[in-house]
User: Fold this.
Amino acid sequence: MTDPLELLTDRLRLWVAGPDVATRMIAFHRDNDDHLRRWAPPSPPGWGSLDYWERKLAGNVDDAAAGRSLRLAIAWRDDDERRVLGTVALSDLLRGPLQQAHLGYSLAARAQGKGIMVEAVRAVATHAFDVMRLHRLSANYMPTNERSGRVLRRCGFVVVGYARDYLFIDGAWRDHVLTQLTDPQDRPPVSPG
Ligand SMILES: CC(C)(COP(=O)(O)OP(=O)(O)OC[C@H]1O[C@@H](n2cnc3c(N)ncnc32)[C@H](O)[C@@H]1OP(=O)(O)O)[C@@H](O)C(=O)NCCC(=O)NCCS
Assistant:
């Protein structure tokens, strides 16, 4: 790790992308709309516009600095242009005695099958436990999304339940498999709030 808001792995750079990345984020979503829409909630108003993404990414920077979330863009580590290959995010942070966050991710269709998301999730989990001092990550996937289930299993997430009609995805309420990864070290909370 070279910066609190940037994680480096063998092949990848994960960083809290600011408003300067808006056009690259638009390109990522435009190029992968068909691929991602089946697994994603409905898009908010203004989705796809420069204004939307500049405000959204500025908010992500603020939220990361305040410890409210960690929304990262993924690029090849050696890509000087930092073209966006995907995203990985920790959201819905709950502190106190729970110390939990929700994990979500998406990857460009053309970048699948190279182990990118496993590498990204492992880096984020290490950061979540060792730096953010969270205790548990939760991640949920539709039973038909076997690819996502394999990513989670390979990263050590275990199935903890099954939720009927859990999220509104691609026009309908969809069942989800619920999984969690707990900090392998038995550490007490450091955050009082
Ligand atoms: C789910 C998703 C993120 C998976 O991304 P991915 O990078 O292809 O997943 P992985 O990192 O596990 O790589 C998968 C394959 O790469 C292969 N691979 C190639 N090189 C590898 C390497 N160096 N290390 C590990 N795996 C490698 C693995 O064999 C693996 O194949 P398998 O799962 O069939 O065994 C991607 O399909 C996606 O964005 N889907 C749409 C959005 C989505 O589903 N989001 C999550 C909603 S819950």
About this structure: The pocket of coenzyme A is lined by residues 36, 39, 105-107, 112-118, 141, 145, 147-148, 150-151, 154 (CB under 6 Å). Residues 94 and 100 are 5 Å apart (CA to CA). Strands lie at 6-8, 12-15, 70-76, 86-94, 100-107, 136-141, 158-169, 172-182. Residues 6-134 form a domain with the Aminopeptidase fold (CATH 3.40.630.30).
